[in-house]
Amino acid sequence: MQINAKELIYSYGKTSSGRVNALSGVNLEIASGEFCGIIGETGSGKSTFVQHLNGLLRVKKNCGALTVGEFDLTSKKCDLKKLRARAGMVFQYPEYQLFAETVEEDVAFGVKNFMPDKTEKERAELVEKALNMVGLDYNEYAKRSPFDLSGGQKRRAAIAGVIVTKPEVLILDEPVAGLDPAGKRDFVALLKKLHADFVKTIIVVSHDMDFIAENCSAVAVFKDGKVSFYGTPKETFLSGEAKKAGLGDTLVTRLTESLKAAGADVESDLTAADFIEKFAAFYFNDKGGNAL
């Protein structure tokens, strides 16, 4: 499902001078199949924007346009249940949202809520597939209490509860927050597996610039309630657009710029693996070795 936002505005609360604009005219097109990162300082509007994508926040009258696939979010007739079955949202620290007595019941909640026409057998099949997809064997984990799982297993169970409806779009807010390096690697591997085999489009909000550069195919930079830049991670970080938005650089970007200042122009896609490969090729070239 392609996502199109045009001049999207959202305001909330009141101050002595009037309402506060969280979104001030967002224009953004995310193609189906992207692994899209959304970055920006706190208060830039990125979380407010993604909460519009499955109708948690509604587009107000005369406040722009937003479509997610065939769903028109400006229409009062928009079927939010169908939308939320196809555009799933995973909040920050999703493991804190587990509530049922068993893992199976927790994961099944989404099917009961968004797909009430499913039979008990069909529901069980969807739950089994979702659990297996996130690396939790159905036979081992289905009847266990979600509160007896490890932190990483809880997060996986919570995500299973979102993907159980087989959404076309998966939206995650700070998906690697609070994870140690090993947990982060495992979770990134899970997201890549989901993107390759289960969910067509993934959208992530993150303050982790290295995570964005390593994994995303496109990046939207939010600043002052608008999209100030949209491009590949390489375009975003090497152009300085991330810095302009008050964000830090990635490790590979800093290394690339330091090497360039020393006379070694090493171009990569800003992933660590590609940088190492390109740097090694440069270094072991006679000219490159002499330059350093």
SSE layout:
Elements: E1 3-15, E2 18-30, E3 35-39, H1 46-52, E4 65-68, E5 71-72, H2 80-86, E6 87-90, H3 103-114, H4 120-133, H5 138-141, H6 151-163, E7 169-173, H7 181-197, E8 201-205, H8 209-215, E9 218-223, E10 226-231, H9 233-238, H10 241-244, H11 251-261, H12 272-283, H13 286-291
Parallel strand pairs: 3-8, 3-9, 6-7, 7-8
Antiparallel strand pairs: 1-2, 1-4, 4-5, 9-10
Helix pairs in contact: 2-3, 3-4, 3-6, 4-6
Helix content: 40-55%
Round the mean pLDDT to the nearest integer and report it: 93
What's the main sheet like? 6 strands, mixed
The helix tally amounts to 13
Could you describe the 3D structure shown?
This protein is of the alpha/beta class and 292 residues long. It is 41% helix and 22% strand. The strands form two sheets. Strands 6-7-8-3-9-10 form a six-stranded mixed beta sheet, sandwiched between helices. A four-stranded antiparallel beta sheet has the order 2-1-4-5. It is globular, with a radius of gyration of 21 Å. The termini are far apart. The mean pLDDT is 93.
Summarize this structure briefly.
This protein is α/β, with parallel strands linked by helices and 292 residues long.
